[in-house]
Amino acid sequence: MRVVTLASSSSGNATLVCAGETAVLVDAGLSARILTARLRQAGMETEKLAGIVLTHEHTDHSCGAAALARQCNVPLYGDRRTLDAVTRSSIARMPDGGTEDARPLVLEPRPAGTSWQIGALRVTSFPVPHDAVAPCGYLLGTDAWQACIVTDCGEITETIFTHLRQAQVIILEANHDREQLLRGPYSPSLKKRILSPTGHLANDQTAEALWNLLDDAPRWVWLAHLSRTNNTPSLARDAVVTRLGARRLRSARLDVLPPGFGLAWDSAELLAGGRR
Question: Which CATH architecture has domain 2-265?
Fold first, then answer.
């Protein structure tokens, strides 16, 4: 199994997850042109993509989804309400209200809280608290390895925690530092939205969740979706390291995802003696 982050920030998010010959993109928050280039950078040709799975409709997670799905002739998976919102938006952005000649979108609705198979990958969705129509996190993997992706989430629920616990690779939002957000340039209404239970996770919330989650099992933790205005990689990492302490990091590898092409994890390299 292989996991590669293609983008992770408030400006765009996309993660490639592969198992055997199956390759799935979780979110497509960049243009189809940029996503195609980054997939190739990850060693993946677009014709090998099996599908695009969407967490929610916000543009930093979905703006390239319809165009890339048409280009690759692959399905879009997600909750029906998310797919409806994304397709309405993509049609509105097309010339003449969507009358241009284009491949029809293939939609595969999957309600939040369900599991299904895409080739060699088992995909399980679960609801997360965020101000979108039907926001989801995802657990993807095989019998041997699993990755859990949780971004755009205002608080950690028991449902989220249950799915995080099953994964070896954890991609978890650490969006902002509370003090930096409160002192920063955002409007009071935007600050209130971000800090709400349907907003985004602060560094201290992510650190607390990891303190409760991590045990002696080997795990690779990637802090994701950092705000460029209200956070820094060092603030996010320090918050987690300080909360966890050395004892909790003995079996965990902690990294902070960059906003652009990011980190890669490969179980084959791990089994052969590599680190990731």
Answer: 4-Layer Sandwich (3.60)
